[in-house]
Input
Amino acid sequence: MQRRFIALSVIAVLAIVGLFGFNAVAQANFKVGITIQSLENSYWAGVFGEVEQIMKEKGWEYTILGCNDNSAVQIQQIENFITSGVDLIMVHPSDPYAIEDYTRQAREAGIKVMCWDDKMENTDLNWILENTELGYAIGKLAADFINVHYDANNKAKVAIMNYPQTPILLERENGILKALEEIAGGKYTIVARQPAIDAASALSNMETILQAHPDVRVVCSIGAGGDIGANVAFMSATGGNIPANMGIFSADATEQQLEAIKNGEASRASVGFEGSNKKTAQAVVSLYERLLNGEVFPEQNLVRPLLAIDASNVDEYLADYK
Output
């Protein structure tokens, strides 16, 4: 009787594993290769720190690389992923056109391919922002602020922290400019445009802008780096006494940006997406998992939501970081 009980128990365990354990075993063997423009950028560093933690908890193998916004480096990274036999490659392209042939090769090798930000052809899924709309949302926040604090006789001096080398970020800048003109036309003057993909270069460039134009009070940034760097420069220039008519408006809504908004620093508002680094990481890893499990999405381009965060709702989203 005891021997029979043991045998039945083994059968029961195998049945449970068969019902519930197969996906867990398969997931533990998933191998993911990720290549993004830069891990120096505050937004990417924060999100992919969370992505790494989630994949580690799942038991997946993974490699996360920055290409330093260099297409040749990114191509080599994709080729290495193909050679190593990953199950999924996620690309955040330096130049989407430069890597199309290599993502095609990956798919021909049976590898799932996901692109973050660009509408590529040779992918299984593109997780995208409508970047002109995102830029317009940033510009609207700035324009509404300008309309409160400035007029045609007292124009706001505006600096744009941009990165036109990357097509989607140029779209974002164009959206900012369109909103400013449509909503606050005649009440501002753009006195400077400087590239700002990371906080360190943005700080240096903002300090240069302030030397030439000490009366700059409004900054629009295409991302977190420009916001964070410009905020440090403004805080230094004012001794931390930020006037009511000074403000920075941006994208990404990283924890550092949200803390600055909460503390009443120069950062006034930022357009985010899922709400926090953790929520963004959970969303993207969920997409990895769906692709790896064979799901075919009805549309190749999956558009992310836009979410404006300012002093009125910042506490709600900061809570995600605690």
